[in-house]
Amino acid sequence: MSDKEDPVDDCESYDSMSSPKKTGQTSLLDSGEDFMILDEEDIDDEPPPLEDAGGGKDKNTESIKEKVEAAPLPANKTEEWLDVLGNERLKKKVLEEGQGRDSRPQKGQNVVINLKTCLKDGTPVDEQTGLTFTLGDGDVIQAVDLTVQLMEMGEKALIHTDAIYAYSSFGSQDPAIPPDAELSLEVELLEAKDAPDLELLTPREKIALANSKKEKGNAHFQRGDYAFAVNSYGIALQITESSSKVDIVPEEENELIEVKVKCLNNMAASQLKLDRNDAALKSCVSALAHQPENIKALFRMGKVLASQGEYDEAIQTLKKALKLEPKNKMIHAELSKLVKKHSEQRGAEQAMYKKMLGNPASINSSTQKHPAKSSWGVSWKWLFGATVVAIGGVALSVVIAARN
């Protein structure tokens, strides 16, 4: 969204519906560092639910989507507030009727809307005309993405949303939205058409589209919406990996690979934030398959391996990264921390083994003393026996001599 010189002034105040009458409300549902903080430079130009490289689809969000898709229309559309999710945190009211339910847009289509954004008290903060996005891709805030699926072509609707479906506790700089802000949105659905066939896009069009999805992921990441970020990066990856019926030159192919590696790196960063370490490791491995000396992929892979207890591999991976970029302070700090932790773990393991097996020193000492004692005992017994035999021999000789 972008600021306009003339702010909107016709958003209905959120307070005007904060306590709607029960009889006029229709429910659409039956039931209600890790990683050292990443800065602008660390996010390479770096999807809510939805899915990631290893975590599958987010059950909660998929459930929300299914319920939204099955949502019935109220009997009197222009007089009732629809409780979209059954929790009174996202509501929709028709201001101007559209062309009928059959004209609703479908997920995956590119839609065009006019959007006016106000704070809860009616203060206008942003207005956009002709805003285009792919429905269901997470290109816009969730309140818009979910409710536009319920709109008819040509319909104008008022949406009241809690912060959780808008800019959450992070707020936004563009547009200027404070943290935890409830919003009032006026949406008009202008157009819906199928997205272009990826196979027929030119390489340049693919690069531009993938970069656009990647930037959406960056925006989600910076707001702390890591699952949404994973989804956006995943969509960008699908674009870079799609087959093509259009010729591509080596330079364009390299650019697509560059975008792909950046998406994989930033997906790994998001997956680390979500504690999905196996998925993050897969993303790092994929990035390194294209660029074996990618510093960020090596760094994040080292962190993943360390989190899985693979300290030797993690240290070797970070050492490789440090060799490629000796002055990188983040790698130095992470490697130092990891070596110290590994050393402490090895010390603890050695102490545990000593406790389990006893004191090796005392065992060796006892073993050394015993043979010495045994050796002396054998020598003494041999000498005593020899003496007895000798005395006996002398006595026998005397007896024989006396008889003779």
TrEMBL record:
Acidic residues biased stretches: 1-13, 31-49
Biased composition (Basic and acidic residues): 54-69
TPR repeat placement: 295-328
UniProt protein name: peptidylprolyl isomerase
SUPFAM superfamilies noted in UniProt: FKBP-like, TPR-like
Its EC number(s): 5.2.1.8
UniProt enzyme class: isomerase
Pfam family for this entry, one: FKBP_C
Keywords noted in UniProt: Isomerase, Membrane, Repeat, Rotamase, TPR repeat, Transmembrane, Transmembrane helix
Stretches for region Disordered: 1-72
GO cellular component entries: cytosol; endomembrane system; membrane; mitochondrial envelope
Organism this protein belongs to: Cynoglossus semilaevis
Gene Ontology MF annotations: peptidyl-prolyl cis-trans isomerase activity; protein folding chaperone
Residue ranges with Polar residues bias: 15-29
Highest taxon above the source species: Eukaryota
Residue intervals passing through the bilayer: 382-402
PROSITE patterns attached to this UniProt entry: FKBP_PPIASE, TPR, TPR_REGION
Residue ranges of every copy of the PPIase FKBP-type domain listed in the record: 108-193
Gene Ontology biological-process annotations: negative regulation of apoptotic process
